[in-house]
Amino acid sequence: MAVERTATLVAVTDHGADTRSLFLDLPGGLDFRPGQFVSCLLPVDGERLTRPYSIASSPEHADRLELLLNLVPDGAGSQHLFDLPIGGTIQLTGPWGTFALDRAPDAETVFLADGTGIAPIRPMLHRAAATASRPLHLVWATTNPFWADELRAIDGLSVTIIAPSALEATVRARWVDADDDRSRHFFVCGVGDIVPRLRDLLRGSGYARRAVQYERW
Asked: What is the CA radius of gyration of the chain?
């Protein structure tokens, strides 16, 4: 049975466009890998909803977790979290998930984030930059690049921010049609059909199955 922990909301950052970061203090910290998530157990209308949220902060700050979330229309879970006051508590379990990075692959590595799919990729980028010997690239498809300055300041990382509608074409042009090099590794995260489309595009063009890791929300 998963062990439940109690975290306390200590700060909120409003990124606009119904997107927020929640900062949670967790006594004793949480031993997690960059890219993993926690499951939040939320009391809503007499029920207990389970909602997974990627950890957007780094393991080096394990006693304060940052969760990034959108307010989902008619989403009871996200509405509960948006309404939670400072000092409110959240029951959670975890960490969970195999979409994770402990150190940079020994190959050129490309991170593809669609919208708030940047959440698990953000700590991956910091870890990768600290351990990389090969080039690192981020393509973030978003209309709200609230972490742009932070990400562009990461040593050794090239950052491209584009419109969500241009993500698939950009990947095809840069890493499928531009050359025959198929040694790269990819980490892909986002919402909806774009994630399996990118996975299939890359694997179908000759990249190794294990070299294309992905998480779809």
From this structure: 17
Dump pLDDT digits (tens) for 115-135. 999 999 999 999 999 999 999
Render pLDDT for 34-76 as a digit per residue (tens, 0 to 9): 999 999 999 999 899 999 999 999 999 889 999 999 999 989 9
CA distance 2 to 78: 22
Distance of CA 183 to the CA centre of its chain: 23
| pTM of the model as a whole | 0.96
Distance CA 109, CA 211 (A): 9
C-alpha triplet 95, 97, 100: angle, nearest 5°: 100
